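To fix ideas at the outset, we first show an illustrative case, written as a sequence plus integers encoding its fold:
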Amino acid sequence: MKSASTLEFALAGLLRQKPQSGYDLRKTFTDTAMRHYSDSPGSIYPAIRRLHARGWIEAEPKDRRGREVFHLVPAGVSAFMEWLARDLTHEDVVFRVQELMLRFAFMDGNVPRSTAIRFLEQFEREFSAYVGELRARFERDSYLKPVHTGLLAFQSGIEAMEAQLAWARRARVRLAEEAR
């Protein structure tokens, strides 16, 4: 079976917090910052079926509304914890920043504080290297005349990434101070 998708890990994380029905999970995607995931039945319910097929979740008897309520079982908890603790790679910061932020959001109460601090250290290191590469490319190309909108959009992206890098540094310091 292929590895789990980010949506499947998001569902596992939500079910780790508390047992929920498919409808409840869909509402979470609709009503929270997780809304960039599809809340459609065409994505949520197949992902729930895949989690069940993997042996990560089980359904409880239907609730009073007639909905199946799912909960994470030990195999799902183990896979979820491994996902949270996974080391970051250069490819992660280039292609999967939203997934990294989702992992970070689920860390509290699931992994030791030291794991969250290590995650931020790795994020800083890898993200800083990537932003440096982009900044160097921008500086090389910024002498193009006339200035064009594509270059200005590229600059905006770099500045947004620099802001996210500054956030990661502040977050790591706060977590480390609190851990003392």
Q: What stands out?
A: The domain at 6-85 is CATH 1.10.10.10 (Arc Repressor Mutant, subunit A). The first strand starts at residue 20 and ends at 21. The mean pLDDT is 90. The chain is about 70% helix and 5% strand.
